[in-house]
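hiii so my PI (J.) wants the whole complex modelled not just the main chain, which honestly fair. so below is everything: two entries, each one labled with what it is. i double checked the lines twice but i was tired so who knows lol
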Amino acid sequence: MAQKPSIPKGTRDFSPLEMSRRNYIFDTIRSVFRLYGYRQIETPSMEQMSTLMGKYGEEGDKLLFRIQNSGEKAGEAPEKGLRYDLTVPFARYVVQHREELQFPFRRYQIQPVWRADRPQKGRYREFYQCDVDVVGTDSLVCETELIKMVEEVYSRFGIRVSMHLNNRKILAGIAEVIGEEDKITDITTAIDKLDKIGADNVNKELLERGLSREAVDRLQPILRLEGSNEQKLQQIAETLNQSETGMKGVEEMREVLRLYESTRTAADNNAFRLEIDLTLARGLNYYTGAIFEVKALDVQMGSITGGGRYDNLTGIFGMPGVSGVGISFGADRIYDVLTELNLYPAYTLETTAVLFATFGEKEREYAMQWADSLRRQGINTEVYPDCSKMKKQMSYADANGIEYAAIVGGNEMETNTVMLKNMQTGEQQQVSLEMLTQTLIQK
Amino acid sequence: MAQKPSIPKGTRDFSPLEMSRRNYIFDTIRSVFRLYGYRQIETPSMEQMSTLMGKYGEEGDKLLFRIQNSGEKAGEAPEKGLRYDLTVPFARYVVQHREELQFPFRRYQIQPVWRADRPQKGRYREFYQCDVDVVGTDSLVCETELIKMVEEVYSRFGIRVSMHLNNRKILAGIAEVIGEEDKITDITTAIDKLDKIGADNVNKELLERGLSREAVDRLQPILRLEGSNEQKLQQIAETLNQSETGMKGVEEMREVLRLYESTRTAADNNAFRLEIDLTLARGLNYYTGAIFEVKALDVQMGSITGGGRYDNLTGIFGMPGVSGVGISFGADRIYDVLTELNLYPAYTLETTAVLFATFGEKEREYAMQWADSLRRQGINTEVYPDCSKMKKQMSYADANGIEYAAIVGGNEMETNTVMLKNMQTGEQQQVSLEMLTQTLIQK
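here's the output for the full assembly
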């Protein structure tokens, strides 16, 4: 047992500093969710295997963690698994609780998910997702609100982002007009990689996937679309005017952009870019309308937020015809972006306002009474529990980022004061309880 | 697939109403933890099986949930398991991160734990624990602060409680003076049941466990101890004056009570009772000093908080000599107590301040702009996304506990107003954006 203990690969411990930063991220996202009327739910960590299997493709099935009771026989097929995302459990929740829910149902959910992926930099086997969805309405007001929520979240973080917008109906229309309607999945899978592998390789892949040379050629102007969103829309509309589905997608996108613009004010800054991106495909098959993806402008990193509209997510659980739209914020990647850009506000460090450091037992009791009085004013206060050397007590305050030390010796007890030390400047001042309280409350 | 989906037995979905109540509980507990300078950590849901096995007794081992990757062969022994409590992962954390930590280390941790217990009323297979511990000091200041934290938490909840206090050294001393030093575990296991099975059955069990009739007789006055804490201490000291360990326990208890009393003020009410209870044993073997347990006075329910001091918890991971003390709040039982006593403050319902209900598309766009303006003031606002019948929109506001509806028709658009309806009283009033903002900000 003398061997140093460890945790399973791909998992993490979070220190107090990391937790205060993570809480800052979750609190910021949550407060924007609530600003738009979304309500929190939680679902169990474990779901029936039948709920999870077959929802994430063959690859996904292999990445599920299965759970066995210790009491169960080895080899017995486990009936439970850890959730893989928050979307499928949400669909299951909606179907299971349909009688209690009032539609449209706006929900958010912030919980960990588990994937037996090969661990690597930035990819973990346990990580948090922050999902927000509204189901039971196909109103484009919802897409518009989600865009505004993304803008608000990143504006609060101070992260400059570009939000890419596409529509599955436009992609379907493109497949239609280039004469490869049945190859829509191959097309989206290939062009999804444009960013990573470049146009030549995408075209090669399209040919390998069985598209005709002519179809690939006809796809090129669409992939290379440039100009303002309005100009892009114009060109897409011209290309797709023979496809009913495609034109429906164009109309949806135009309406979302119009609604979004109608609530923008001069005060809004340029830290947020919303741009049509026909190369955005997103892997998941359940999307049927708008799709979104967000990238940070100042950091090299994959998508930090993504989502879209789905018309039949609850259909897999026997409740068809419930349209919804949602997005998911990737807390771990946002953490990395904030760290790389050094954007954490100073106040995010959840710390103690003052540490009482004392020279002996009597002084410590005196400090406990002062501490009690400060806490009754809501001031986060610690008393160093041992009568250790003053140097050790000061280094404790330093290590924990505590701004003030209130030092108590015999002299302070006699004069009913403490020696208040600013740990950053080293300044010291003898103060009364009233002055101490005032100093700390004003922080 | 048409079968209604379900979740594994012993697990739960939490609705928005339940979540807002649970958040109220967690936030209250967390803010008291922070008031005393405790810092949050989180550990992974899964730990190595070697970390978990053998820490909870034979029964505990059987209740561990084991995890397999889907890729692993069936029958292969899983090396990972879901955490069973927050104490063992915390001990593992302290040992693993000893170089980075500053002792004394005050930490809190609020996370779910999993036990493959037979599910029954009030007992779940996934539930949250709220743990607070300080390690690296044996100062009794810590016990005192934990008692005060318990008092503060339940005072904020408005729950009247009694906190039972005992000390493992006193229990050891009792075993010693009745001549049954080696039967300390049998004695504590038996008298732990006094509440449930009564004195006669406890005595019967003690005899069955091999105690002499004389020893059982000598135990009786100690079990039936009455009077004030001071009177009890007096009697225990007399009984134990031949046991060094026992007297050490008496001294510790006396000091903790004295320190606690020294910070009480006249303002403190009588909703909190702190009482010596020699029949309190607590099952876990790692306790070595003070032990605590808290019960609600006005509800029939088991312990809602408990803990104690341990001198060698990290020893199992190869780091001996680290004393610590901690307590754990049972969020689920607190939830049940608050529900039964109807003690949730009205504001705990995390809801939207106003719903815009509109008569058509133009009105909805107008509402979106108003909503945007309110949100910029931090007011939680929803726009009903569809142009449904007004009755449906009103019933949505009702079902979601939204206090105000802002109704928009052609007349309102012409006069640049909304019709503000108080959903509880039914009162309606035509208001400007400024008046609306003022009304909602003052809430």
